[in-house]
Amino acid sequence: MFRPDKPLSIVHDITALQYALEKAERRPIVVVQEPRRADGSISDIPVVTNLTGSRTVVARALGINDHQTAAPIYAQRTGNCIAPEKISGESAPVQEIVLEGDNIDLTKLPALTQHVTDPGPYLTAAHATTYDPDTKTDNTAIQRCWIKSPTRMSYFPYPASHNARNLRKFWERGEDCPVVFWIGHHPAVLMGTQAKLTYPESHWGACGGLIGEPLRVTPSRTFGDSIMVPADAEIVIEGYAPKDVLEADGPFGEYTGYSGPQVAAPVVDVTCITMRKNALYHDYGSGLTDMLVPDNMAMEGKVFGLCKQVAPSVVNVHVPAQGRRFHGYIQVENPGPGEVRDALMAALSYRRLKLAIAVNQDIDIFDDSEMFFAMATRVQWSRDSFTVDGLSGSLLDPSTPVGSKTLSKMAIDASMPLPGRAGAPPPIPPRSKVPDEAMQRAAEILSGLDPNDWPTL
Amino acid sequence: MSNNKEIVRLGAPWEKTGNTSWTQCPACEEWFHVGPGLLDRPEVHMHCPACHKEFPQTDAKRLVTSG
Ligand SMILES: [Zn+2]
């Protein structure tokens, strides 16, 4: 954990620190005790960011020692839902402080302005919980929120999202849409909200499955049991999205690493803010590994489950942050005829992936140099790659053609050819290798030396 | 009706084209990018991220879209 020992500006400087850490390939949790607002005043709510920048930290939060083994565990746990436990508002830490009426002031939150093109301060780790008015089932997803005044912010539910569907249902009934935003929780709970579910399906059960016990929830002050909030969150903002009111929102730095365009977005008129005593404000560095890692690890669980159904030889999946959310690496062990392509087709059917690459177990799917080795030496492109057009995908992908609603995707079979006979070596040359004992002796020679003066490239 | 809108025509399917539309603030002349969902709703005012002027599309100094 890194705690800067002086005030840091919430306008650009905290995010700049995250970029510098990422460049240095260091991923500590960052706690800014004295966030300095644009007017020079110091917020009494500390900022926690880079909470999930490290795969190792996120895996540990799930009780997993090795992040490389997380995909099958995530798939299994989010499939074993544990129902939430309701507790009263009086015993809910998140309602220790209640701000209503004239005491509501969103601008008191130390919301960061992260990037040059962002128009102002955004909540980046606000989980929007809405419900389907037909079934009363709740849904939760991270939604960016631009703080526009003490009592109003815009937010942007992606048009195809479950929260956008709930919003449209309320508006079609002629009603304002109830919505609650909650900020800050245990990383395992944050990971549970990333579980990819059907509609309508609550995320509370998946959160419970991940933490191994019921998630404690409490009725929101404004909406009662209709919208429950995690009782152990740090901060909650409750309000209504007034019917048919849209305002400009953005540009905003997205997970793609690009600034997303200004859009027409709903707004929320705030009815209540609640928080813990000594609340922490959680920020995700948008487009940094801080934001990519938890969602990508959740994707790994989902893609693993999809592939495993059609290709039992799939043993692991990696969605690397350097591919944003668009690349998936699939590892297979002793696949049968056709199984590698079956797995690749299943992976491409997952909305966010637009490139899937399959390799064998001798390739480390967490090491891009190994992935390039497999593609360089095990692929004949016309034989081993294929493209599929017209699949669903993220339209935030900056390369999508104008007006397109679907994407063009690609799969690469960089696995080894199958052996000619069972038990025989695969029909490719063996990889060059020195004996393990010699590698051990080399490590001993290098240990204790300072390599900082030696060139890295 | 303002004639501030410029449409960049697309080329052949094999030619690489971009997908981003840009508008220019009538007050401070900052360029910023706008999505198709906003362009389809002329009743929603654009908001300059630099000087915070709000203005209808027809008041944009320039509006360059791909189409
Ligand atoms: Zn301007």
Description:
The complex is a heterodimer of chains A (457) and B (67). Chain A is α+β, with helices and mostly antiparallel strands and 457 residues long. Chain A has 11 helices and 25 strands. Chain A has helices at residues 13-23, 55-61, 70-79, 162-172, 187-192, 204-211, 289-310, 339-348, 368-378, 381-384, 436-446, and strands at residues 8-9, 30-32, 35-36, 47-49, 85-86, 97-100, 122-123, 126-131, 138-142, 145-147, 152-155, 177-183, 216-220, 224-230, 235-241, 246-249, 252-253, 259-260, 263-275, 281-282, 314-318, 327-332, 355-360, 385-391, 407-413. In chain A, the strands form 6 sheets. In chain A, strands 6, 7, 8, 9, 10, 11, 12, 15, 16 and 19 form a 10-stranded antiparallel β-sheet that branches. Chain A has a 5-stranded mixed β-sheet with strand order 21-22-23-25-24, sandwiched between helices. In chain A, helix 3 (70-79) packs across helix 7 (289-310). With 67 residues, chain B is mostly beta strands. Chain B has one domain (19-66). Helix content of chain B is 6%, strand content 31%. In chain B, the strands form 2 sheets. In chain B, strands 1-6-2-3 form a 4-stranded mixed β-sheet. Chain B has a two-stranded antiparallel sheet with strand order 4-5. The longest helix of chain B has 4 residues, at 36-39. Bound molecules: zinc ion (ZN). Zinc ion binds next to loops of chain B. Zinc ion binds at residues 25, 27-28, 30, 48, 50-51, 53 of chain B.
Which range best describes the helical content of chain B: under 10%, 10-25%, 25-40%, 40-55%, 55-70% or over 70%? under 10%
| Percentage of residues in strands of chain B | 25-35%
CATH fold name of the domain at 70-276 in chain A, please? Answer: Pnp Oxidase, Chain A
- How far the N terminus sits from the C terminus of chain B, by CA atoms, comes to 20 Å
Please give the count of helices of chain B: 1
Distance between the termini of chain A: 30 Å
